[in-house]
Design brief:
The complex is a heterodimer of chains A (321) and B (334). Chain A has 321 residues and is mostly helical. Chain A has twelve helices and six strands. In chain A, α3 packs across α8. Chain A starts with a helix and ends with a helix. In chain B, 47% of the residues lie in helices and 18% in strands. Chain B has helices at 48-55, 82-104, 108-131, 134-143, 151-157, 174-181, 190-195, 198-217, 233-246, 263-280, 291-295, 315-320, 322-329; strands spanning 10-19, 22-32, 37-41, 63-68, 71-73, 159-161, 251-255, 284-288, 300-305, 308-313. In chain B, the strands form two sheets. Chain B has a six-stranded mixed β-sheet with strand order 6-7-8-3-9-10, with helices on both faces. In chain B, strands 2-1-4-5 form a four-stranded antiparallel β-sheet, covered by helices on one side. The chains are: A mainly alpha (321), B alpha/beta (334). The interface between A and B is large, with 32 and 41 residues.
Chain lengths: 321, 334
């Protein structure tokens, strides 16, 4: 057994989990407030990575930026711009595709969501490319802190440790995602608009009769959810250095699974689910079952749902009934 | 003629509400005078809650209208189809002009500019439609898309209410429930919240203070951080009233606020209502099916049966009305 490899893989899982968690938050927030499975959400994430690509090519960035102040400014611009643009895209999608159907049967907005998903993919296919495109990785992908873990023996069992590299880009993604999640938690828990969101999720009509403008509140929910997906899109570009018009499908499905696993409607659950799925995925590959990783992830999902139909942290549905 | 009569706070004129063939409320007129407690009573199924929902702006009357502080209230858009047309109208006009100029043989450069201007206008109108600033809503009212407002606007206008079957935000604390009621008066924007500006923090502190005071006023002490669903039944009713008061209403609508309470709890509640009327000078419209409950505190009583108004007047007048007795006790009782 090699403690180094395990640590390295755990670190990788954290990075991937951070992205899943960011996307899952959008699914769970939208479901919590209007009970819609927003199938277009994965594609909002995908468009986010392309918005970053567009921004970088506009600024003429070719590859890694090694000057720390410039890199910092570039990262701030990338995230601020992409998150704002994607937030607005989310609001527009809600306004024109979902709001007119808010009182329609549940199936209608679901189909619209699938439609929006295809529209977004098509737009990207036409304006960018059909095939994978490279995104300059502004944080040097090789750079990182290499750590040598101590080697030790338990009884006769030798634990080796190969050196572990904590890539700066990964550290950045994890720190950023966690801070965004904490900020979201504070926003929802402690502010007037967060209260409006929670009350709308619990009882829309009563909230309205207490003076909460539910249209604005729902639009705000879409803005935040889509902005987080946009952040995940930037993180994806930083991490993989490539993107394609259909990455939203797989990543979206996994994140949706994460949201359900954690208990849909529950923001903490979504974050937990995101990390959990990434760990299952990474470690099933590590144990040599990489071709089975999808099957393993979804088998665990089924098992969890059989025993806890509302997900790991979810009691919301039961309470609502 | 020396007496100056204050205009009524709320006036319902010839209200009729039909659900398909079923006429739940038929031709009902009533008024709530300033600073008074008006009760709407009637046996179960008399159409009280339907009437109440129309007054609270949840649904529009089939016929007639509700006037609140002299303003006509309507819940849903009159001509909703007009709005999308409005979005494309400016751009459409510009493009039409461009087309005309093209036929007239104007230089291409000017045409291209005009096409872009049209596109800009289209994007601008769509952005406005999403953000919905106040002037846009006013424009919609002027154009007749809305005659008046959505329920949350009616709350802003000053109608606060409680529900017959308690509808608190179950997973939020008592304090948070009241704070949601204050939502409309608080002004901190998302940006303030993100940056945690001084304005946002001051507002938050002040609103929590005010919410505590309201909870006390409604008779809830030391329950601030209890989840609403864990409160005993009577306290949940009180919390609903505190939450409704938090919207700073000019009229309080109470839908069977003592349903399921025992006589002594009911008596305490009624005392609270009298206090709200006298101390806060807040007119109350009270719905109740048990007529004994309201007789003690009402200034005026309106009696409904099968959706029609059968009697109106002071409690004593109503109590003596043969039609009321008949509706409540059946024909044989007379």
């Amino acid at each position: 057994m090699d403690a180094g490899i395990l640590t390295q893989q755990a670190f990788n899982a954290l990075t991937i989990g951070a992205m899943y968690a960011l996307i899952a938050l959008g699914y769970t927030m939208v479901y919590g407030i209007i009970e819609l499975i927003n199938f277009a959400h994965g594609d909002v994430f995908m468009v986010g990575s392309f918005v970053t690509l567009w921004l970088l090519s506009t600024f003429g960035v070719q590859g890694a930026i090694n000057d720390p102040p410039r890199l910092t400014i570039m990262l701030i611009v990338m995230f601020a711009f992409t998150m704002t643009v994607m937030g607005l895209v989310g609001v527009v999608i809600e306004r024109f595709a979902y709001r007119p159907l808010r009182n329609a049967p549940r199936l209608a907005p679901l189909i619209t969501a699938i439609g929006v998903s295809f529209i977004l993919q098509n737009i990207i296919q036409v304006t960018f490319s059909n095939s994978p495109v490279n995104v300059p990785r502004v944080i040097e992908p090789q750079a990182g802190a290499t750590v040598q873990l101590p080697q030790f023996a338990v009884a006769n069992f030798q634990v080796t440790a190969s050196p572990v590299t904590f890539a700066y880009s990964h550290i950045f993604i994890i720190v950023l995602a966690v801070s965004l999640m904490v900020a979201l938690q504070l926003f929802v828990g402690r502010t007037r608009l967060g209260r409006a969101m929670r009350s709308t999720a619990i009882d829309r009509e009563a909230a309205q009769l207490m003076g909460v403008d539910i249209n604005t509140t729902i639009a705000l929910t879409f803005f935040i959810g889509s902005a987080l997906a946009g952040a995940a899109g930037v993180a994806w570009a930083l991490n993989y250095g490539t993107t394609k018009f259909d990455i939203g499908f797989q990543a979206g499905l996994k994140s949706f699974t994460a949201a359900v696993l954690g208990g849909i409607g529950n923001t903490t659950g979504a974050a937990l689910g995101g990390f959990l799925i990434a760990f299952i995925e990474v470690f099933s590959s590590q144990l040599g079952y990489s071709r089975w990783s999808e099957a393993i992830v979804f088998s665990i999902l089924i098992l969890v749902l059989v025993f806890r139909p509302t997900g790991l942290l979810g009691q919301r549905l039961a309470e609502r009934a | 003629m020396t007496e100056q009569i204050a205009p009524p706070v709320l006036r319902a004129v010839r209200l009729t509400k039909a659900f398909g063939g079923l006429v739940a409320v038929k031709d009902v007129d009533f008024e709530v005078k300033a600073g008074s407690i008006t009760s709407l009573i009637g046996p179960n199924g008399a159409g009280k809650t339907t009437l109440f929902n129309v007054v609270a702006g949840l649904s529009d009357p089939t016929e007639g209208y509700v006037e609140f502080l002299g303003q006509k209230m309507v819940a849903s858009p009159e001509r909703g189809w007009l709005e999308p047309i409005l979005w494309v109208l400016p751009a459409g006009l510009v493009w039409l002009l461009t087309y005309g100029l093209g036929l007239a043989g104007v230089v291409t450069a000017a045409i291209e500019v005009l096409i872009l201007v049209g596109l800009g206008l289209l994007i601008a109108t769509l952005i406005v439609a999403v953000i919905r600033p106040a002037w846009y809503t006013r424009l919609l009212v002027v154009l007749g898309v809305f005659k008046s407002a959505r329920p949350n606007d009616m709350v802003q206008a000053g109608i606060g209410r409680t529900f017959q079957n308690i509808r608190l935000f179950a997973n939020m604390t008592a304090l948070e429930n009241v704070l949601v009621g204050m939502h409309g008066q608080l002004k901190a924007s998302p940006l303030d919240a993100v940056l945690r500006t001084g304005k946002q923090r001051r507002e938050e502190v002040a609103s929590i203070e005010e919410a505590r005071r309201l909870l006390q006023y409604a008779g809830l002490r030391n329950r601030d951080n209890e989840l609403a669903r864990n409160l005993p039944y009577g306290d949940q009713r009180r919390l609903e009233i505190a939450r409704a008061l938090a919207t700073k209403p000019k009229l309080l609508l109470l839908d069977e606020p003592t349903a399921g309470m025992n006589p002594s709890e009911t008596a305490t509640m009624m005392k609270l209502f009298s206090r709200i009327r006298t101390e806060l000078n807040l007119p109350i419209l009270l719905i109740e099916h048990d007529m004994r409950v309201v007789m003690g505190i009402s200034d005026s009583v309106t009696v409904l049966d099968h959706g029609e108004k059968i009697s109106e007047g002071t409690p004593d007048q109503v109590r003596a009305d043969a039609r009321v007795i008949e509706a409540y006790l059946g024909k044989g009782a007379i």
